[in-house]
Amino acid sequence: MSSNAEAQASRGDAFKWAIVILLVALGVIGNNYYSAESLLYRLIAILVLAGVAGFVALQTVKGKAFFTLAKEAKTEIRRVVWPTRQETMQTTLIVLAVVVFMSLVLWGVDSFLGWVVSSVIS
């Protein structure tokens, strides 16, 4: 019995995704066809089509899973302990110091190897 329900849900999702693809294609083709019209009108039409396509996509199984993931991510972001300004500055300065140091080391190694190669070739 549940496999029959899953098959119907799968067919329904396929139909919904086809509608989403059709709406996106309609937006692209319509934007090209009405290229002489005002950019504002075309932008409003594309935003409306994108909103409808997004709403239809959220009605699918994957769309609902995505919406749940987004809600959980928002909850997790609230739990993050963000660094203080001082910690951010210290970390940034350490990263910059390491980058400058490594660039000087690599420049020195490259110069040395270039000198060795030019000595061997000459």
TrEMBL record:
Spans traversing the lipid bilayer: 14-34, 40-61, 93-117
Q: Does the keyword Lipid biosynthesis apply?
A: no
Signal sequence span per UniProt?
none
Report the InterPro entries cross-referenced here. Answer: SecE_bac, SecE_sf, Translocase_SecE/Sec61-g
Where does it mainly reside?
membrane
Question: Does the UniProt entry include the keyword Lipid metabolism?
Answer: no
Which Gene Ontology cellular component terms are annotated? plasma membrane
Q: Which residues form a coiled coil?
A: none
Assembly information from the UniProt record: Component of the Sec protein translocase complex. Heterotrimer consisting of SecY, SecE and SecG subunits. The heterotrimers can form oligomers, although 1 heterotrimer is thought to be able to translocate proteins. Interacts with the ribosome. Interacts with SecDF, and other proteins may be involved. Interacts with SecA.
Protein family per UniProt:
Belongs to the SecE/SEC61-gamma family.
Q: Which HAMAP family match?
A: SecE
Fetch the NCBIfam families from UniProt.
PRK05740.1-2 (NF004372), PRK05740.2-4 (NF004378), secE_bact (TIGR00964)
What is the protein's known function? Essential subunit of the Sec protein translocation channel SecYEG. Clamps together the 2 halves of SecY. May contact the channel plug during translocation.
Q: Name the chain's protein.
A: Protein translocase subunit SecE
| Organism of provenance | Marinomonas ushuaiensis DSM 15871
Lineage, highest ranks first: Bacteria, Pseudomonadati, Pseudomonadota, Gammaproteobacteria, Oceanospirillales
